[in-house]
Predict the structure.
Amino acid sequence: MSRLGLTIPFGDTPLARQREHLDSIEASGFTDLWSAEASGADAFTPLVAAAVSHPSFRLGTAIVPAYTRSPALMAMSAAALADVAEGEVVLGIGTSSDVIVEKWNGLSFRAPYQRVRDVATFVRRALSGERIDMACASFSINGFRLDRAPQRQPKIMIAALRPGMLRLAGTVGDGAIVNWLSPTDVHRVTPYVLEANPQADIVARLFVVPSRDLTAVRATARRAIAAYLNVPVYAEFHRWLGRGEQLEPMWQAWQAGDRSAALAAIPDELVDELFLYGTPDQISTRIRDYADAGVTTPVLAIMQAAGEAPPSAASIAEIGRAYTGDR
């Protein structure tokens, strides 16, 4: 089955009204809805609402930070979503970043590999209904049992950037969730996952600006690149991918506090590699590039072009139809 995902909720639309958008999206080729958890809506509430109003979608979190919820609470949340949903549920777990964990949540961002490994291991055991005594590097939990273990077990996927976490996604997870990469980069990251699990799902979050105004697209993309790729975990990821020389001018300007110079230092070719834009047909062609490179579930994160109105549900649906050929 050819999968195509969409990130929810939709922009500034209240959660109570997102079902209106989903009415347009449901028959347009999208198979999945994926949420995130940073500083907007939590990861589970938008998916629960979607499960009630539009039960045909596969639902996934991309991602729930391994630090900001206790392991038991994460298991309870995933089980509750699986209890509501009629289709498949995927629990995506990741480190998030030191900015979100430490600066925004006041927690310690320590030993990220061990934390994700331990949380994923605990949650899988908990979702089975097992009584758990687990002492590990990250925590010690004694006697926990999930009172409402789901009848259909959610899949567990790991958000990963570099080799260690990518291998973990293939060993303790059912697949990997990746982002901020080009189709060429997909060839670099997927072997680490597939060597442990040849059947692993590769979920890629793709940034889409559905606009034909190249100036507006690049303005939007540069702000997003500066916001993310200056975060240490993403900076190291792109150094590993071989973009250190290309991004060094931006990093230096950002560290010096010159935000305008940092934005100006982001080359057009980087925007073109990491962002999908243009007409629905142009965007769908780029999505296929990722699928051809090994992504099994492309998940679109729709962004509003600078100076333009937010993309409508109808325009997003058109992208889905262009990708699936149902037009």
Observations:
- The chain has a mean pLDDT of 96.
- The CA atoms of residues 132 and 144 lie 5 Å apart.
- The longest strand covers residues 201-209.
